Structure to design on (117 residues):
């Protein structure tokens, strides 16, 4: 691996670790890029090139995964949203529908009694 690619790989690795560790704070791109030592514009491009997904989308997948774990542990939808770092349950609903094509309530019910319309 050439030196530039190795440096970029290390930056993206640090970026992923940061996003996973700070998932609940829902860090914005400016704080995230500043932590890595890059401009927001460059961090966005670099992360997307290496991870094949934007930092925001990566963070949303991690948030949904964490919320699903909470829902499996019998947390309410509102509690799961708050514990995942979201401001309201509708935010969790939007994330889950876009990432998983199901609402938090549907996930929590695990397919029991599906409504046919």
């Amino acid at each position: 691996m050439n030196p530039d690619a190795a440096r970029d790989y290390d930056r993206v690795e640090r970026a992923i670790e940061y996003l996973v560790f700070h998932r609940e704070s829902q860090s914005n791109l400016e704080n995230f890029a500043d932590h890595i030592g890059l401009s927001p514009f460059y961090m966005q491009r670099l992360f997307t090139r290496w991870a094949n997904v934007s930092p925001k989308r990566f963070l949303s997948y991690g948030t949904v995964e964490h919320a699903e774990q909470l829902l499996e542990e019998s947390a309410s939808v509102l509690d799961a949203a708050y514990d995942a770092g979201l401001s309201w349950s509708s935010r969790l609903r939007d994330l889950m529908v876009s990432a998983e094509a199901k609402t938090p309530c549907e996930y929590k019910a695990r397919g029991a009694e599906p409504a046919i319309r």
